[in-house]
Fold each of these.
Amino acid sequence: MNKAFGNDDPALARYIYDLYTPEDAQLREVRERAGGEGLPGIQVAALDARHLEVLVRLCGVRKAVEVGTLAGYSALSIVRGMLPDGVLYTIEGDAHHAEVAAETFRKAGITERVRQLRGTALSMLPALAGEGPFDFVFIDADKENYDQYLDWAAANLRRGGMVAGDNAFLFGHLYTDESPPSQGQKAMRAFHQRLATSGEFRSTVLPTGEGLAVGIKL
Ligand code: SAH
Ligand code: DHB
Ligand code: MG
């Protein structure tokens, strides 16, 4: 039994993709404009953006945090899933990325639902704690600090809130046996260790291409 997405049949995967159309014209415009502005094409895949929206809808999210805005592709998806009065705080360390994202939020008419925090995530998160507790935290910035971002999420999510982490397979290098392990490997392994075994979360890794780790705070 082939358990891969679409049973590893590209035509079947295409059928699903065409039917569910995870990338509508609004998201496509964001991706294309970001590329035109020279941003790297490292936003979540379209179907993963839809996963985020549906997960957020499931949680009843009023207050969300995103670490790593880029052009606002995933942020737009998160906002789509939030309750009508929900607010997303999204952190970005690159000034140009944040400018492109601001245009995304302006075009989507969601400026008043998004608080853009510009700066290094680890320097912004302590003050952001004062706005919590949060219903949803999406971690998608530098992989070398994923364990510290999870520390913050564990402390600042409400019980029943969800943490999600993109790139949970670390581009295939999560468990490549390199000695000594890179900082990214150390941090991502510590992230998984806490999510999987600490007893603080009930967690899984959704089998997306990049691996989307999700945990519900107990
Ligand atoms: N979530 C986005 C993609 C984020 S890519 C989407 O799916 O649409 C990662 C982003 O994190 C980049 O824009 C990068 O500039 C930013 N970033 C990386 N390290 C950071 C840090 N330490 N603090 C804040 N932003 C950071
Ligand atoms: C990179 C970052 C991401 O969040 C991602 O999904 C893909 C690539 C990167 O930094 O290269
Ligand atoms: Mg990512």
Note: The mean pLDDT is 97.
Amino acid sequence: MTASLRFLADAAPAAPAVPAARTGTALRTAAVEVRYPNGTQALQATSLVFEPGRFTVLLGASGAGKSTLLRCLNGLVRPTAGTVSVDGIGELRSAAALQQHRRSTGMVFQQHHLIGRLSVLSNVLMGRLGYHSSWATLRPWSRSEKESALAAIERVGLLDRALDRADELSGGQQQRVGVARALVQQPRVLLADEPVASLDPATAEHLLSLMQRICRSDGLTAVVSLHQVELARRHADRIVGLKGGAVVFDGAPSALGSQAVLELYGPAGT
Ligand code: ADP
């Protein structure tokens, strides 16, 4: 860490230490179905287990149900049938269970949702907000929170940009800030909805490699949606292929042959 960044971390009074790094926790869907109010059956009865330390890619064409499944996994969409549960928390039904799960779930989005005029560091610190009651957010960030944020920024290779405005960074760098913001939560679960959709191919490779490396080293449960077959083949530990809201493939990338790809991306009913 450079001297100026160390000064920044020293600027606020000491506060309770940030919890130690945590490993992943399993997510389970049991016969989960989603029918939206307009009648669209986005997910058919789906039973899956997502294990810690595994980088699972949800693969499928647009409209296949990837986002809907991800949103069930973080409790943003309530299944119309079936249950989603998290080891150590239980079924995601009560407000308390949902809050506990969301605190330990880092989200990375297609659009990074950064505040452009704020620094990289300030954006990453936003990831800590879930840990505080609303009144507590009015106080300055503690030294340990700033240190955690700088450590997360260092992990995504942007420490030298920590004090720059977020909107001065390239698209790929901004997406890495989004990853750092998720990491500063010290999540057990990392969910990402098409995180590379707006990146060029080389930047997409780099971001996925980074996310995969971090998830493996921290033992996180990672579920990432993609629509590019080759990216999924190169980066996934496991591919769950969706079509028309149903799981049509579940296995290792090496098992995803051309027939399975045809089934995933061919016309409905093939
Ligand atoms: P994917 O992420 O694979 O593109 P989605 O989960 O977004 O797929 O969508 C699955 C299906 O559900 C699509 O037919 C889509 O149009 C529909 N859908 C998604 N969100 C909603 C919603 N909020 N209300 C109604 N239909 C939706």
Note: Residues 9-21 have pLDDT under 50 and may be disordered.
